[in-house]
């Protein structure tokens, strides 16, 4: 995709609607601007509150993906209470720790 834009007063540039839609750019988003080999490179950046940064770590996102796959495949359990869920987890961890258990 190629679009021609004009630099306006105060060096302002308007991103064409087709570009904004293609990249899902919304009002208030940030763009990282770099110059590389005589070209201007723009990258969309989403800022994350520091207290929520843990959610976007590679490890956490891998866990989220795994959880979504488990849910989609029906690998879920329903419990009537927290006590029942904790008992299930204890039982499962004992099975994993049992050296005589077959894999």
Percent in strands: 5-15%
Per the principal axes of the C-alpha atoms, what is the gross shape?
elongated
Describe the strand arrangement of the main beta sheet, using strand numbers. 1-2
Q: Termini, distance in Å?
A: 52 Å
Q: Kindly report the average pLDDT value.
A: 92
Cα-based radius of gyration, to the nearest Å: 24 Å
Report the count of strand segments: 2
The tally of helices reads 3
Coarse structural class:
alpha+beta
Number of domains: 2
Order of SSEs, N→C?
HEEHH
Helix content: 25-40%
Largest sheet: 2 strands, antiparallel
Task: Give a quick rundown of the structure.
The protein is α+β, with helices and mostly antiparallel strands and 103 residues long. Helix content is 37%, strand content 14%. It has 2 domains: 9-45, Ribbon (Pemi-like Protein 1, Chain: D), CATH 2.10.260; 50-97, no CATH class.
What does the model show?
A hairpin with a 2-residue loop joins β1 and β2. The chain has 2 domains: 9-45, Pemi-like Protein 1, Chain: D (Ribbon), CATH 2.10.260; 50-97, no CATH class. The protein has helices at 17-23, 58-72, 82-97, and strands at residues 30-36, 39-45. It is of the alpha+beta class. The model has no long low-confidence stretch (mean pLDDT 92).
Structure characteristics:
single chain, 103 residues, alpha+beta, 2 domains, two-stranded antiparallel ribbon, 3 helices, elongated
Could you outline the blueprint of secondary structure elements for this entry?
Layout: H1 17-23, E1 30-36, E2 39-45, H2 58-72, H3 82-97
Antiparallel strand pairs: 1-2
